[in-house]
Design goal:
single chain; 309 residues; five-stranded mixed beta barrel; disordered N terminus
């Protein structure tokens, strides 16, 4: 009995320590990660092993070879990062052996490294995408040093647009430029939609070009859809409709496109389809019914988006 109590105590302490080191509201995009993380590294996860043998609920240690130090003082070429994957919500950081990682880290008084902002602070990426992130990180470090608030704001908006243009960093820029597009913002009412006000017509044209060039669509593209829709309704409607036709069904992307297109067919049939889709989202083994629902939706919307269809 004492043994099991000690295991539970260790597990609780581990989770509590992880939460105490969060030091950030959720969610946290790249700008805030650069601003608030003590250290940033590009690294390679060599191996994982439990912090406490015999405790399946305890923390795990990720041994990381430091390939590049982008922020903070880290003397070692290899570091150990403590994380706990047993947390359900908010989502914990994920480290996988034999992968490249961009890690945003904090250090406790004992010198132990923890991931800043949980899942947002551990990004498993291809080397090419890490290079894109590195460029944006170095730029933000320079922008943060600007004394003139107006210039810093203007350059930050430009930086966010550059993030949103690239698929690898689309969420990082899109989140702060179009907060209402992401339901996660409702977890923290302190977020303000101030950066979107700084978008120029030239910015929006660049974002539209980036969106229409996207072939492998994802939920992050919804940020761009919402930012450039006004004044470009026809072309964006066609883009979303093509996405529904060509992309595999996805809860966030498919549902996002459907909710944004449903107004084009203001009929009882459309309302019934959307209600049905909402129910099917939460049911298992309903792939056929879901595909049929999407197909019927496409037929209804196509009449409005593509004349004489």
């Amino acid at each position: 009995m004492v043994k099991y109590f000690l295991i539970l105590l260790i597990a609780f302490s581990s989770v509590a320590n992880t939460m105490a080191n969060l030091n950030a509201e959720m969610p946290q995009p790249l700008r805030l990660l650069v601003e608030r993380s003590q250290c940033i590294i590009s690294g390679y996860v060599v191996k994982l092993y439990p912090q406490n043998q015999g405790n399946p609920w305890g923390s795990t240690i990720a041994q990381i070879a430091v390939l590049e130090k982008l922020q903070g003082s880290i003397a070692a070429d290899t570091i150990e990062v403590i994380f706990n994957s047993n947390i359900v919500c908010p989502a914990p950081p994920r480290y996988t052996a034999n992968t490249h990682i961009l890690a945003f880290l904090d250090r406790d008084k004992e010198g132990h490294y923890y991931t800043h902002a949980l899942k947002y602070g551990a990004k498993t990426l291809a080397p090419a995408d890490i290079a894109i992130y590195k460029a944006r990180i170095l730029e933000m470090q320079q922008i943060a040093q600007l004394k003139n608030k107006t210039e810093r704001y203007t350059q930050t908006v430009e930086w966010l647009v550059k993030c949103a243009e690239q698929p690898a960093t689309r969420w990082e820029g899109g989140f702060e430029l179009s907060l209402q597009s992401d339901f996660m913002v409702y977890y923290d009412k302190r977020y303000q939609d101030g950066f979107r006000k700084g978008l120029t017509e030239a910015h929006k044209e660049r974002l539209k070009t980036a969106l229409l060039a996207t072939t492998d669509m994802g939920a992050d593209d919804l940020f761009l859809v919402d930012m450039v829709y006004a004044g470009n309704e026809k072309v964006i409607n066609v883009f979303m409709l093509n996405g529904l036709k060509t992309q595999p069904p996805s809860d966030w992307l498919t549902g996002g496109f459907m909710r944004r297109l449903a107004h084009l067919s203001d009929t009882p049939e459309m309302k019934k389809l959307m209600d049905n889709y909402g129910k099917l989202q939460f049911e298992n083994n309903k792939a056929t019914e879901m595909n049929n629902c999407i197909a019927e939706f496409i037929k209804l919307v196509e009449k409005a988006v593509v004349p004489n269809s």
